[in-house]
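User: Before I run my own analysis I want an independent prediction to cross-check against. Here's the chain; please return only the structure tokens and, at the end, one sentence I can use as a sanity check.
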Amino acid sequence: MNDKLFYRKDLFYYFIPGLEIFFNLTATIYGKVKILYNISLTKFDMTANNAVKKSRNFIKFYIMTHMQALPIDLHIEISSLRNFINDQIISGNPNFFDGKDFYEILKRVVIDSEAKPFLTFPKDESEQNYYNKYLHQSKEEFYNLIPDFFEFDGEFYDLDRIQCIYKDFSREDDFEKLFNAKLLELQSINYPIDKFLFFQQFDNFYGQKDSIDSFLYQLTEKDGNCQLLQEICQILRDWIGTQGLELLKQSSIEIQVKDEDDSFIETVDSHEIWVKEIESLKEKRVKSKWSLDQIKNYFSFLYKEKSENGEPYLKKEQVDKIFENGFCIPEKAIDPLFKLNFSPKYPIKNVKYAIYYFYDKANTKSHDKLAYLLFFGSFIEEFNKYLISKDAYKSFSNNSNKTPARNKIAWDLYRPIL
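Assistant: Structure tokens:
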């Protein structure tokens, strides 16, 4: 059953006045919210804590609105936004987003949400022609309108199915542009913007008025947004309110002055601290619950598993070199660094996952992650880049602990039995 139509019809399109609604509301809301957020948990791997917060806020939202009718889906939903942008391009509206730029945004948010592809590498020859058809289409030059699918690392993702995007799982700039597009979509059908903002307060900001106010204030302070949204900007300011605007403006000035005074010093100090932290770990043995033999056997997948062109990720002699002094961080990185042999079909995510899993299961204290990454970054080029700065290092943990979608490795053959 179409998820979107399900909750549109069942939750929004019928309004029952009187006391009767109170007795039916508890059971109805509980069942529907559970369904909605089971879907959200599956699609976006939300933490249980955030899911509980959102569910509670939605219950409050439905009670406050008495289940009043909503004519369209008020989520940030990408298939409807894609259709809207394409309609604007066809009509020749010059004030909207460039189709190619918006296409790139949609691709990023789908990948960031870890949605599953609708088409993967063919398992046998019978699927090859179907796969080749999409592969050929994906290589065609972009022409104005946003396609209904895209290719990423040799797999294909749908832009024509219902996919709600949430702030917590999107890049800041991408979410802002999608939010702007939704505002314009609603304006085009004369839908009250304040009702949309009220819905979004609970859908993406955990019911916190000050949180969505801060987001809207920053949005309206950008000249490009005001030029795009025009009169909608005033509606957003009215939503925030005069008092809220004054508080946000004062807060913004104080932060800006402080940032200008401290930014250079903080940048220099932060980098120096990072370098010292790296240096302090060199020539030290990394503590691990696993024995050296268990570690070596685990990472033997690097030369035993086949990757691109039938070759392994690394050669056996390279893996031997990595562990020739045990699990000990060298004084300096080798020169040249080893390069992994990988491709879209045999992704680097497999190696990234292996290292993160090793750290997660073998470390003896939670703050050892840098030591683990520094060890591998001292030998492998693709992991050395995470040591350039603290920000680069932080990016390593993003989704590294999840088994890659294109995993073809039987990990139990390599993991130690503890």
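Sanity check: The mean pLDDT is 78.
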